[in-house]
Write a structure and sequence with these properties.
Chain lengths: ~650, ~325
């Protein structure tokens, strides 16, 4: 019965999709089996935060990527480490969008929802559409479970008004049945139930279990008996799907389109950021130093870099956010490629030390993985609300290059660029990431560092000894030359007091201060000369230009593509570098009759663009929910703007 | 013998008030550095904010005048990133123990190889006279016109509470003793804290009066030397002896007291209990302890960080970015 339900629902779904979005799929009739080939699907795993949904989702994504699909994932986990079991606040979700072609977002709503308990069903149902299929674990729908999830009746389906197909499935009891002879205790057996759900989903989408098994063996390398128990349950889940059908079988094979040749891996934004910094340090021939203090959702950057001591990386878990940044400033002073990683609340504390790097013109990379604010706010959720803090949140005139990574894999490129700008232009650089791209993952073609531009620190050379002073600048870039302590002949003093132009002596002169303010500003502005101009995707003669920055790239691009598919003329300009603005920003924005800036804050980038451009009527789309944009909502809103 | 003279470390014209203890200390530091023998370009002097934190501007070394309270954290990053540098960290009592208290205790706890100098004049001078975390209870200042109602930190106590392995104390104007403390601090591997008792002629004149002159020190201070009996007084007629869990001052020859009863200083004893007792002594009942009170070897943070890097380099089979990529689960599109 189960398979019939799911298969039926999925056919319905795909037909609807086909009609609506001109997505195509083929029916491939095998001799006795019907296997349908589809172009994309969105699956959401949800359960108690202890149910292992992130692991199940991760494995499913990775094996899909391994067979050549493109993936984009979104882990949606609660702030509590482990809320009481079964309650609404403890639900952990993991959504993956799998496509034949490049996918840019985890998608709005899912095609298949796995809900391991009533709390998951209640909180996650909003991610379903009428055509979705919901797989529930019937064993976790007892009266007690319903009470914990605050249901008022004993019929959760009716109570929630669920209209899409629900596939009841005895996940926990099947799991226990599978492991009954294993000698494991009940609690340990139940802990494997996520693999039963995964097995079921793997069957549904015709995924090769051997890949998942390999991943489990690697994950539990030190506990092979746990690995084997998980694999047994995984297979049982797959077989449950396979065996419970009688004569017909509709499983789905997801197309994969030819991709660039080479090796690929799955990577999330935080890991990609760490990799970008390591790549830049190697290219620059510098020691990588990270001073950091644990903070959600940035801590994984510290975790990642702490692992790679064999590459000479030095990480220091400081006593506080301030010392995380201050130690990095000290490391930069002493000649390292120095970085500090944090989230918004940490930036508040680091701003003083960042400013020291501004006035002393030392290279420093500050990574802000943005989360919901203000104050402690929504630690595990994503926003773009730190933009103005990054640009202006320091005392005095304090210009800093600001870069915003646009996707999980772009975190690599952006971190590399941030490091390159920092050491070549002797300036702190703020790299904005956000919880969404930091935790989201995508398949990534392994880069070859030979393809990346050189990074040349602006060191003094021995021939400069005569008459050298610490604030002599390269006349073209206005970058001062870097004499790293330990270099003979260049002893000098720098500090947070205003410096005399060129000589670096303490100066209170009004004219000198104005000159130094201008030079620091001009130095940052000239960085634009080394960067590509603003790019626009979509229609040349668009009636609407959608503008965004950072982690919303995929959603805005998707919205633009959908609108174009409806015959509208739309374009999309996305900013990766925010300060200095790319060349051509004014001219590009002025070309379009309507410009809308869409961002996950109350209009920070829109306001900044108004300040930096002339005569452009900038409309706004703002949403601050801690959640990724919803493409359908974007399309609706942009369409309304076009119709105004 | 060092190839350097004090002159090699001098730079510029100090701008502290005439009579400020910082002048005398700066002279002692120049002299100590010339005797230590580390080249000026291998020396970094890193300070926070305050009168004494202007000191790097008067050093012909690499100097970094940073931000209020953060000198210890910044110096930590510099030393870890570039362990070949000899790093001096200069802070006053406000910079080091108030706004920078957290960085102070953690630098000491980590045992990073910094020469941490705490210039203690028990006052905020640069902001023109507010009480500091080392001002005595009841101290009247612009921000405490009716006297403070809080107890001060005792720097040694904070240092030992953070598991400090080196603590020395000197008087800014006591050149030879200060030079000896600074040399010992530099030779000590790990975080060394040297408390410099220093006068502020403008806002807190006479704060260390009892020990600020040679005569005063003769009567009211004891110079501790490792391996030597703890004797003091103009004729070395007084000594320190143990009494129960505490210390007592005894006079040689009085009540049958002989030198046998006098404690012999052991700066290298790993148990800090007696070091703390010595460091906390104050008048009028006890002499103020000067010299190297504690000097114990322990693994340093910077050495351990780099040793771990070397160890892991030997254990792991990837050492560059291309090799790092290969440690991941990958798949190939052909």
């Amino acid at each position: 019965m189960f398979t019939t339900f799911v298969a039926h629902r999925l056919i319905t779904y795909n037909k609807l999709q086909y009609n609506l979005q001109t997505h195509y799929f083929d029916h491939i009739m095998a001799e006795k089996e019907m296997k349908q080939t589809i172009d994309q699907v969105i699956v959401r795993f949800s359960g108690d935060s202890g149910d292992g949904m992130q692991l199940a989702g991760n494995i499913f994504s990775t094996i899909s990527a391994t067979v050549g699909n493109d993936i984009c994932t979104f882990p949606d986990y609660p702030a509590d480490i482990r809320a009481p079991q079964g309650v609404l606040t403890g639900v952990s979700g993991f959504q993956v969008h799998i496509g034949a072609d490049k996918v840019y977002t985890p998608g709005d709503k899912c095609d298949v929802l796995v809900a391991m308990n009533p709390a998951a069903l209640k909180t996650q149902y909003k991610y379903c559409k009428p055509t979705s299929a919901i797989i529930i674990d019937t064993d976790s729908f007892t009266a007690k479970d319903l009470e914990k999830a605050e249901y008022k009746t004993d019929d959760p389906i009716k109570e929630l008004g669920i209209t899409c197909e629900v596939v009841p499935s005895p996940i926990t009891s099947m799991c226990i049945e599978t492991l009954k002879d294993s000698g494991m205790d009940n609690k340990s057996m139940v802990r494997c139930k996520n693999m039963l759900a995964l097995g079921l989903v793997c069957w549904l989408f015709d995924r090769d279990l051997s890949l998942a098994e390999g991943m489990l063996r690697a994950k539990f390398a030190k506990k092979p008996e746990i690995a084997e128990a998980n694999i047994k349950v995984l297979r049982a889940g797959y077989d449950m799907g396979h065996n419970t059908h009688a004569s017909i079988s509709h499983t789905y094979s997801i197309n994969s389109k030819p991709k660039a040749k080479g090796k690929y891996m799955d990577i999330n934004g935080n890991k990609a950021t760490a990799y970008g910094l390591m790549a830049a340090a190697e290219k620059a021939g510098m020691t990588l130093f990270l001073g950091s203090y644990p903070i959600t959702p940035a801590t994984d950057i510290l975790h990642e870099l702490a692992k790679h001591k064999s590459m000479g990386v030095i990480t220091m878990q400081a006593e506080d956010e301030i010392a995380g940044c201050a130690s990095a400033v000290g490391a930069a002073y002493a000649g390292a490629l120095a970085c500090t990683s944090t989230s918004g609340p940490g930036i508040c504390l680091k701003s003083e030390a960042i400013n020291l790097a501004v006035i002393t013109e030392l290279p420093l990379v500050i990574i802000d993985v943005q989360r919901g604010g203000p104050s402690t706010g929504l630690p595990t959720k994503s926003e773009q609300t730190d933009l103005l803090q990054a640009l202006f949140g320091r005392n005095g005139e304090s210009p800093i290059p600001v870069i915003a990574a646009t996707s999980p894999t772009d975190c690599f490129e952006s971190a590399y660029l941030a490091a390159k700008i920092a050491v070549e232009h002797m300036t702190p650089v703020i790299l904005l990431s956000d919880a969404f791209i930091a935790n989201g993952s995508a398949s990534w073609k392994l880069p070859d560092l030979n393809d990346y531009p050189e990074i040349k620190p602006n060191y003094v050379t021995p021939d400069m000894v005569e008459g050298w002073t610490p604030y002599k600048r390269n006349p073209e870039t206005l970058v001062r030359y870097w004499a790293v302590p330990g270099t003979p002949g260049f002893t000098h003093r720098i500090g947070g007091l205003e410096k005399s132009n060129e000589t670096g002596a303490i100066s209170n002169s009004p004219e000198n201060h104005h000159l130094m303010v201008e030079q620091r500003q001009e130095k940052v502005e000239r960085i634009a000369n080394t960067l590509p101009p603003l790019k626009v995707e979509g229609d040349e003669d668009a009636d609407l230009l959608i503008v965004g920055f950072g982690g919303t790239y995929g959603h805005l691009r998707e919205a633009m593509l959908q609108m174009r598919a409806e015959g509208k003329k739309v374009a999309h300009a996305h900013f990766n570098v925010i300060n200095p603005l790319p060349r051509g920003t004014q001219e590009t924005l002025a070309r379009y009759s309507k410009v809308v800036v869409a961002e996950q804050n109350m209009g920070q980038f829109a306001g900044y663009l108004r300040m930096k451009t002339n005569g452009i009527n900038i409309r706004q789309y703002n949403e601050v929910k801690g959640q990724p944009f919803n493409i359908a909502t974007l399309v609706d809103s942009f369409t309304k703007i076009m119709e105004e | 013998m060092s190839e350097y003279k004090a002159q090699d470390f001098k730079f510029g014209q100090p701008r502290w008030c005439p009579g400020c203890g910082d002048h005398a200390f700066l002279g002692a530091l120049h002299k100590a550095m010339s005797e230590i023998g580390v080249a000026p370009h291998q020396t970094a002097v890193i300070s926070g904010i305050g009168c004494s934190s202007r000191l790097p501007y008067y050093m012909n070394t690499y100097g970094f005048h940073t931000i209020h309270g953060r000198a210890a954290a910044i110096a930590t990053g510099a030393k870890v990133a570039n362990p070949d540098l000899t790093v001096w960290q200069i802070s006053g009592d406000g910079d080091g123990l108030a706004i920078g208290g957290n960085h102070f205790i953690h630098a000491v706890r980590r045992n990073i190889d910094l020469n941490m100098i705490l210039l203690n004049n028990r006052i905020y001078g640069l902001t023109k006279g507010q009480y500091s975390p080392t001002s005595v209870r009841g101290f009247v200042s612009k921000s405490s016109p009716y006297g403070t109602v809080e107890d001060p930190f005792r720097p040694a106590e904070l240092c030992f509470g953070a598991r400090g392995n080196f603590f020395a104390r000197c008087v800014a104007t006591d050149m030879n003793a200060a030079v000896e403390c600074l040399k010992a601090a530099a030779q000590h591997k790990g975080a060394s804290v040297t408390e410099v008792l220093q006068n502020c002629v403008i806002f807190n004149n006479g704060t260390h009066e009892s020990v600020y002159t040679k005569e005063g020190r003769m009567k009211n201070a004891i110079y501790l030397e490792h391996g030597k009996p703890m004797l003091f007084g103009p004729e070395k007629e007084y000594g320190l002896a143990q009494e129960g869990f505490g210390l007592k001052v005894v006079k040689l020859g009085e009540n049958g007291v002989s030198e046998k009863e006098i404690l012999v200083h052991d700066a290298h004893c790993s148990d800090p209990t007696l070091h703390l007792k010595l460091a906390l002594m104050e008048g009028p009942d006890f002499p103020v302890a000067l010299g190297i009170i504690r000097d114990v070897e322990a693994p340093t943070y910077n050495d351990s960080v780099h040793a771990q890097v070397e160890e892991i380099k030997g254990k792991k089979n990837y050492h560059n970015f291309a090799e790092l990529l290969e440690t991941n689960e990958t798949w190939e599109i052909k």
